[in-house]
Amino acid sequence: MVPARLCLLCLFIPQAFPGAQPAEVYVDVPENYGGNFPLYLTKLPLPRKETEGQIVLSGDSGVAAEGPFAVDPESGFLLVTRALDREEQAEYQLQVTLETEDGRVLWGPQHVLVHVKDENDQVPRFSQAIYKVQLSQGTRPGVPFFFLEASDGDAPGTANSDLRFHILNQAPSQPSADMFQLEPQLGALALSPEGSTSLDQALEGPYQLLVQVKDMGDQASGHQATATIDVSIVENTWVPLDPVHLAENLQVPYPHHVAQVHWSGGDVHYHLESQPLGPFDVDKEGKLYVTRELDREAQAEYLLRVRAQNTRGEDYAETLELHVVVMDENDNMPVCPPRGPAISIPELSPPGTKVAKLLVEDADAPGSPNSHIVYRLLSPEPEEGAEGRAFELDSTSGSVTLGAAPLQAGQNILLQVLVTDLGGAEGGLSSTCEIAVTITDINDHAPEFTTSQIEPLSLPEDTEPGTLVTTLMATDADLEPAFRLMDFAIEAGDVEGTFGLDWEPDSGRVQLRLLKNLSYEAAPSHKLVVVVRSVAEPVGPDPGPGATVTVTVLVERVVPPPQLDQESYEASVPVSTPAGSLLLTIRPSDPMSSPLRFSLVNDSEGWLCIEEVSGEVHIARPLQGAQPGDMYTVLVEAQDADEPTLSTSANLVIHFLKAPSAPTPTLAPVPSRHLCTPRQDRGVVVGGPRGDPDLAGGHGPYSFALGPNPTAQRDWRLRALNGSHAYLTLGLHWVEPREHVVPIVVSHHDLVWQIQVRVIVCRCNVEGQCMRKVGRMKGMPTKLSAVGILVGTLIAIGIFLILIFTHLTLARKKDLDQPVDSVPLKAAV
Ligand SMILES: *[C@@H]1O[C@H](CO)[C@@H](O)[C@H](O)[C@H]1NC(C)=O
Ligand SMILES: *[C@@H]1O[C@H](CO)[C@@H](O)[C@H](O)[C@H]1NC(C)=O
Ligand SMILES: *[C@@H]1O[C@H](CO)[C@@H](O)[C@H](O)[C@H]1NC(C)=O
């Protein structure tokens, strides 16, 4: 019998591996073994040769607590000495060593795990014999409202402890025998659909349920136990809730209790959701809280959903909804729109023109007084004395329009509007909004000249074209530079185009210039009308009289200055010239020009004087101090008798000559004549000065005298013939035959001239004609030549006499007399 049992047990050691390092040995032992003991479990892999050692078996921790186990030293088998209880100890960990007596380990340790194999020797047990459970009406079918608890001591995970629950009996069995259903594996008790329907109709119960728990899973065999569940049915308190109104900014301790829900069934867990997410919470008792202050402007309403759930998170019933309404408080002031760019309004816009509309927002509840806004214009204040405001504001709509008071271009106005909520009532919140307004310019002003009439302007006739006549200024009251651009034109008075205008478009200054030559004869004056216009299209009234200006230009006649017949004058005068002598006459170049008035500018010596009208220059006083060869320059001025401002001047240069021989350049030389010497009864007629037109006709009377030269006084005689002529004769019997220049002083009243009379003195024949030797060159015989001729003649006579006395007797054939080739001379020039 034993060997057979051993063989059987050998099967229990599949994990025993022989070797130097022995692996753990695993042994299964059935629980509550009912056979004989000791029971051989397995043969340990002891070494065969080492027999001196002693086999030691120890427990888990090394102590010798081997308990019911032992090793048979002879066979090397592990054995158990009594029946094992898995519920007492399910596993044993042993180790086997081979040791000497003094404790030296020869082999091992060999670990051995002994597992007690379960036997279904335990009965399942409910945690309570009687359970009391509350069941609320309205609990959904299938949702467990109670979980049975039962235990089984057998090995977990095996069929021995695999429990199943069943309802054995329901009492009462009305209105249905199957009011409940029990989930067999979990023991979850729920209403059946029938039961749910019946409970909704009437409050039944209570019910007593006899329930069973059984092990071995779904097998028919197994241990079982029973218990009683007393189910009492309670009224459904899970009812819809009224909306909750909560004031915003509520100053209370938080969390603040706001509502209560209650699920009257047992074992409930409340769950809360807020839509949108909000500061709400629910506690175990179903009290709802708000956990902090609410802000209506952030969220005005919340929808809370509350669920009553079992331990598995399943809803017992429908979700309860709770509306939370946040009540407004006037905690928001009106908010002005951001100040934008200035609004442009053209000037002269009519009253009522829309300027702007204030869009003020108040975040408080719309439609409530908290957001009821009224507007009031704070600024600009109405001007004193003005007939109204410049701007009007509608107190309810916030629309700004133009008022009656006028505005001016270029004005920048900041409108200030007080905006108050609560309809303007006391306690309302307010803000001040600002609107910038700019009044823009329109071209409503015509340009105008600063003066409408200017003094007549004089322009000399010879003014050069291009000359600036005058500069006119015009202004434009508009502000916009484009509206200030001006255009100028000569509208009238300049048909010929004699004048022109020059301007910079944006300056307002226009220059009137002469373009052509002026002519006094053609037009002694010009009346020009200059007009200015706006370049841009003007708006509003027509330009006034200021748009034109009249410029009167008077043409000044230009008379050329007088001109003299010479640029400068010269005269030579002997220093002995007596006072009163006429020097010369200064005349205008054009005898037809207007009469002149002459004067001497710087006759510092006072030697000269000039006749104012005739221009005759005379010696004023004897020329004492003047040296021959000196020059004396005097500036002569000639003024126009009609226009004293017109004048000219010329230098008069006087050359002083030696007293006797000073010629008078104005006197024409007297033609030369011839006289015979020795003296015959003849003379030459000398005429007066021929250069003087007044006197040329012999209007004398002149007095004639020989010049102061002593030789002339000796050699010549002068006898007056009549008022205009005199008779010059030789003073001596013999005067050397040659050309003589005889100075003669001619005087007429105070005037004195000296004239030179050229006279040729020559030998004459019987008829009184000058004789001259042929062969002599032209010209008069001189003293030397005459002496030469005389000596030559005497020598010739001497030679003849010698020849006569020498050859008197030889040859008396020739008769020599005076030269035969002498011819009478004509009057020399
Ligand atoms: C204008 O006058 C100047 C000088 O008097 C003269 O030289 C010029 O030719 C004149 N021009 C005309 C267009 O008559
Ligand atoms: C008179 O004026 C002219 C021109 O200025 C000058 O040449 C001359 O020497 C002056 N004569 C006297 C005497 O000062
Ligand atoms: C003066 O005498 C001259 C010469 O005999 C003569 O030619 C002249 O006509 C006379 N004049 C008068 C005014 O008698």
From TrEMBL:
GO terms for cellular component: adherens junction; basolateral plasma membrane; catenin complex. Keywords: Calcium, Cell adhesion, Cell membrane, Glycoprotein, Membrane, Metal-binding, Repeat, Signal, Transmembrane, Transmembrane helix. Pfam families: Cadherin (PF00028). Residues 56-126, 127-336, 337-449, 451-564, 565-667 form the Cadherin domain. It is found in: Cell membrane. InterPro entries: Cadherin, Cadherin-like_dom, Cadherin-like_sf, Cadherin_CS. GO terms for molecular function: beta-catenin binding; cadherin binding; calcium ion binding. The keyword Oxidoreductase does not apply. Its main location: membrane. It comes from the Eukaryota. The chain crosses the membrane at residues 784-805. Residues 1-22 form the signal peptide. It is a single-pass type I membrane protein. One of its GO terms (biological process) is calcium-dependent cell-cell adhesion via plasma membrane cell adhesion molecules. Cadherins are calcium-dependent cell adhesion proteins. They preferentially interact with themselves in a homophilic manner in connecting cells; cadherins may thus contribute to the sorting of heterogeneous cell types. This is Cadherin-16. It comes from Balaenoptera musculus (Blue whale). The lineage of its organism: Eukaryota, Metazoa, Chordata, Craniata, Vertebrata. The gene is CDH16.
